[in-house]
Specification:
Chain lengths: ~240, ~525, ~1100
Amino acid sequence: MSDLPSFPEGFPLPERGLEEVAAAEPQDLAAALAFALLRVSPEPEKGLRRPGLFVAAKAWLRERGRPFAQGWQMPTPSGCGLIVVAVADERQVIWALEEALKSGAVGGAVAALSAPDFVATRRLAFAAKAGGAAAAILRTTGAEGLSAAWRRWRIGSLASAPQAFDVRAPGPARLRAELTRRRDGLPGVWELEWDDDRRIWRDAKSGPAAAQQARGLRLAAGLARDGLDPFDPASEGSRQVG
Amino acid sequence: MTVWTRSTRHQKAPVRSAEASDQKPIPFALVERNGRGLCLRAVNGAAQKLGLWRGQSQADARAMAPDLVTVPADPAAEALALQRLALWAERFSPCVALMADGPGVEGLALDMTGGTHLFGGETAFIAAFEARLAKAGILARVAMADSLGAAWALARFGGLTQIAPVGGAREALADLPVEALRLDPEAVTLLKRFGLQRIGDLYPLPRAGLARRFRGPRAGAMGLKVVERLDQALGFRAEPVVPVRPPPAYRSFQVFAEPITETAGVALYLPDLAKALAEQLQRDGQGARRLTLTGYRVDGATTSIEAGLSAASAQPSHLLRLLKEKGLEALDLGFGIDALMLSAPVAEASVAQQEGLDGERSATEVAALASLIDRLQAKLGEDAVQTPRPRGSWLPERSEGWDAASNLGFGAFDPVLRPRPILLFHPPERVEAIAELPDSAPARFTWRRVARRVVRAEGPERIAPEWWRLSPASPRPPRTRDYYRIEDETGRRYWLFREGLYGREDQDRTPEWWLHGVFA
Amino acid sequence: MGADLAYAELDLRSNFSFLEGASHADELVLTAKALGLAAIGLADRNSLAGVVRAHVAAKAQGFRLLIGCRLVFLDGTELIVYPRDRAAYGRLCRLLSLGKMGDIHEGAEDQDPDADEDRIAKGDCRLTFEQAAALGEGLIGLVPAPLHLTTKTAGAFEAQMTAWHRAWPDQLYLAAAPLRQGDDRARLNRLAGIAQRTAAPLIATNGVLYHDPSRRPLQDVLACVRQGCRLDEAGLRLQAHAERFLKRPAEMARLFRGHEEALARTMAVVDAARFSLDELQYDYPEEPIPPGKTADQHLADLTWAGAEDRYPDGVPAKVRQSLIKELDLIARVNYAPYFLTVHDLVTFARRQAILCQGRGSAANSAVCYCLGITAVDPAQIDLLFERFISEERREPPDIDVDFEHERREEVIQYIYRRYGRHRAAIAATVIRYRPRSAIRDVGKVLGLTEDVTAALANTVWGSHGEGVADEHVRAVGLDPHAPRLALALDLARQLLGFPRHLSQHVGGFILTRGDLVETVPVGNAAMAARTFIEWDKDDIDALKMMKVDVLALGMLSAIRRGFDLIRDAYGRDLGLATVPREDPAVYQMLCQADSVGVFQVESRAQMSMLPRLKPVCFYDLVIQVAIVRPGPIQGDMVHPYLNRRAGREPVAFPSPHPDHGPPDELERVLGKTLGVPLFQEQAMRIAMEAARFTGDEANGLRKAMAAFRRVGTIAFYETMMVERMVERGYGRDFAERCFNQIKGFGDYGFPESHAASFAHLVYVSAWLKRWFPEVFLAALINSQPMGFYAPAQLVRDAVAHGVVVRPPDLNASDWDCRLEEKGTAPASPTASGRPRRRAVRLGLRQIDGFRRDWALAIMAARGDQPYADLEDLRRRSGLSGAALDALAAADALGSLALTRRTGLWAARGLPRAAPAPLFAAMGLEEADGPAPLPPSSASQEVVQDYQTLRLSLKAHPLSFLRQDLGRLGVQTAAQLAVAADGARMISAGVVLVRQRPGSAKGVCFMTLEDETGTVNVVIWPKLFKANRPVAMGARLLLIRGRIQRAEGVVHLVADSLEDRSADLASLSQSSATRPSPHASGHRHPRDVRILPRSRDFH
């Protein structure tokens, strides 16, 4: 992501190595995945155009959903293709991730794991370093136990701001990223918002879009019918339970 | 000496349905579009029996045989097939040339100089050659003469004569039609107008007088061609032959009495071949940069595996390991192979290697990725390692396909103009929802037993089923979907759709709600 | 809910937005009315081609229709416009004409079609917004919003709106449609903001492509056809849903909640755009009227003057009466300018010595005879109906004029010169989907293999009908209920009748007094120097505009040549009207089916009708022309007529029950045709007299009959007609047959008035053949290509009639065939007793590939001094080598004592302009001289004659095979002609013609030729099916069968077929060459071009 200044103050830049990204609650998994993708997309490497890799157990994919590439317009590791590996169990997830990282063939990798043991994380961290790749372990639930990961994150979804031209529609995605552990400094909390025009994550509290958004809000408010609420029982038509 | 083989119908009739294959043969033709419209390019035996012929217009052919099955010709595939046959024929002679004179009249030229005694003489050789081709389902005629031209003529027009004895071309050709000289149709037409129908008719004519009577845009050239072709056929003038590929400088060869059908058999002979090849390389101070192992199949095809070497090598053990890693299983032995060749098509002096260059994905990266994918696929199965590709459909689950990954490339997605979730449930999951009629977003919904209140919603995005894929037999014809992007009170975002339009579709089935994906 | 809402759909495309809109105009009108829309505006893509239909439909429904257009500019931007009034409509037409022609041709004189490299292609429209703005006064504009609104595209659109608003001279709206892409609320809000800032008010539309959501599949198919892709690969190019249909006002209001004023604005446009097509006051051109006279006066003057010429001995009373009556009627309905215009064209043609003849209901009037428009004398034949103009219908009269086919273009260019290209143009023909094209396109899109689609398409003989029937599908071995196939068939049925593109009408000209480009858009035709309007015949009829059909007829060229030859050779001056009438010898000849080359009656079907009908007077020819047509055949009227004529059946007239009307009500209609309806007018007249159709009903029936109206209406009229006739006491069987005949006429209507004009040409050409067969032959060959027979058959027929035909020769032939003194040629037996007949010298045009300018060079340099040798020829004429080759190859060097081979050798041996250095390099500069070329055999000569001249005067190819064939028991055509009925015979001949008419239920008719004549073969379906490859593929066929002889017509009914084509190949071999035993390497015998191909109709 070239537009680095958009990141909030003190936000650690994505870099090579192993991190852990955990959903604050299981329902926050989509936000956590989006954040993990950001973490494994380090600055484009010179001369190297390596694809990204996502590996998960088949049961995980059934339960949590399978990656949808068109929804991954958000950072794709190194922007150069995606390999998705579906395996039988977590043991294979670890094996596949390690193979991928140490091969040096991928630029970034995300692996869905519930609880890797410390030895495994050590191996993975080593492999990421050896392969010059950024890797993230995506965890459905909070991070407990020892880990060799360089950083540990807890990601929660945030309510979006209203959309510029439609107050009733969800605005750009927002999430809360809590750095619970880092080896090179202090933990911290950041709120990020997706900027669809520039295709980057930026600080939810500032950013050029905020002003435009405010303007759009005013405009929309002036045009839309007052008091129109989608759940207003007075609206025409009857209700239906489906 | 030159051997001319003629293969009339080597393109395989793509038999497309099971019932067609064993029942009575169906008339079949390959068609191509030319100046006169759609014309038959090649016909099978059944079509020939009905009187259909190459060059006939498809409309005429269909008028004669309405059940004629036609398939557009694929000249590239035909050329490839001929090329393959030529490679296969290298087992008889290292110098094999393609004679792609036109559809249905393709052929091969083999330089058999001093080679036929290996096969028991000319007659035996021709018999063996034809038999092998016949076994592979290829109808061919083989002829042999002093010159390429004479062999060509005999193979096509020679009737019972397949061998012109040494020095006997003049006599053997005299009664053949002038077409046998490989001439332009215009030249043939003109000769016939002069009443010159047989090659023998040309013998008494003044050659200069004949040559100068060709006029037109390619005037002199055509006249000279006639004389030149005659001279070539009679052996007065040499004709260069360009082999299909230069005979590899380094190759080792092994012929088997009994066809080998197992990979293990190949592995058995491989050390000797590698050793023989390495000796040749070492003798010249060379190392192989590329290896090809070719099996010659009894059905007229070849099968091969190739391996690139990052550095030139002439170590038998190295060459052997490389081929084994590559996987001898990749050789498709079919009904067996009766010869095996190991060659080094690219070789260079064994010196230090260069590093990969900056730029696109460098060669080493490609190799690293390939080997990663190979490893993952080997252990997890090919289907486990996939890469997405856009498929051009509005239906989300059809809009991207997943291919088995390869290092060759990744599907490029255009920026999506409509929001799409990061994770997609396949199949979608049923939810309970309450929504205003006819097409408002739900006010609340229950997914996985958790009730959620909708705070913000956008939609509908309406996507109708792909009607052309419907089968009327299906018990539940799919209905139109209305997709909504929804945010609940906890700030989580979902992709829901209602299947079925109120009052418009399938009125006795109430619309149903589904969750199809989640957004970040 | 929302009943008070008024909404009009203003973004709507019909299927005249080719391959885009998926509904007919009347479907849109009916649906819009039913849904309660206030109005619709039709805005097809760069075209007004569909507006007349929509106008007619809307008028019939009493529904408000706005005429507009969707302008698609070169940069891809779009603007929908609606004219406020007639003047603005005129500007819109001018604008579209500009886009279709580049620049509007004000004068025809400065027209140089070839100079224009950038000529706009047919169907193309190249316009920019600036051009539109320049003519935009009075045009209300609606700008459709872009499909996707992102920050970037919205910004660009806003900039465009700002610029357009500044430039557009009239009201501009921003048209927003709910696209159901998920973001409709945001979209409308966003567009409303743009509308506010750019001062172009937001207006609601729905981007309609079809009247009902059920048309989505068809629209998808059309989109694929347009983009040339299959459905499976069309992907995102298709619409995501079926929402582009007409919606109720209340539904639109729901979709535009929060923007209700955008809905209301549609009514503002409806109120402002008041233009209606009814305002197109049609004015006739006034050119042909001299100053100081009224059109009526002038027409009367010309008519009476013409009558004096036509009847030098005094105008017969009957004719005088007709003229007075007709002139009176013409004056009453104000059609004099029309007659004057036609007269003007005919006069021009006469001045240029272009033969022409009018036909059509108005053409066979006494007025047209006197004006020289036709040559059918009203005194001589009494046409059935004096109602040559329909007074009630107020439709313009119908006159088609046939001109010599090679010179019609002169007449067309005269029209452009005289009336100006801005006032004269050819009408359009709407090319519509027919069963064959529909199934082909749908099949391709659905991914059916070419085999399947071709098989389906081929099941539809002749491409007429109502679609691919299930039994046809089963007949080609496919299951009509297989899902994909069923889908394809269903879609193909829906697609039937959809317009696909416009093409120019064969010769229908529309002429106006004012600027045509302000009445209807005019565009370039595919042909250089041609332009055509966007409306077709029906549209022009509906708007009651004037049309003159300027048609081409090959026989007129031949007859004119014949007259010229007779004048030059025998000094006799003849014209269409002066050929001696009612000559019994001519009728005698026709009764014997001796009609090769004669106009209209030379086909095999006509030939077998002649001996049965036995024409003895002109009116018999009128019937002969009309009877061999689908109408009478489908109506089963042929046999009753023949039986009555032969007296085998009493002449009776069906009559109604005495309570319902006079018993002779049909006698007046059917009297001349012995109680059997044969002509289109008669069938229509029965509807009016016997079924009591009103004028409007009859009109409706006539329209329903026209090809490719959608089904449904026909059945309605069928019930109406049959039931009413039964009710009035007619037999049901007769009523049904009458209706079937009307249905048959639907496709190939043949009214008596046309038949009469054609019959005249039948007579004239037959007269030429009877008395001047050599002239007839030369004239026909010089007018090729035309007619049913190839020169080879024409020559054979002429020779059989005693004409001496001589081969082309460089010292005797011109480009055309000419007549020359017979010299020492033996007198022919049939010519005895007549003045010395000339021989026909075939022209150099007969030589395949010979060019006209070569022939002219030979003729010019030859003068009176024949060429002495080849060198002399080349020196004097400057002919190219290719020309010399062609002469030699055609054996046309006979007068230089050169044969084909020696001639070719010599011609090719002439010294070159420059010596080829290559030759020297090859050591080939040897002395040249005659070469030992093999001699050629007689059969080789004949084969080469056929290859170069397509005929041989030396012998028939079969004569060389006669001995071999004789051994097989084969008899000659001459022997067959005299064989007894039922005799078993074997015949062999070259296949001339194959026919499998749709009406003949699979029977194949074939004509074989040998050296003695032709044999007509009938192959029953079962035998045909079993021998299909032979029947369809053989060039030389041997047939065993039985003779069937009836009423002077002889057929050979085949029992078995044998392909002998290989025998033909042996003809080209010299005796020295034995056939190669290994034949598979040779070309197939059929491939060897020994004889010209047969003509196949299937």
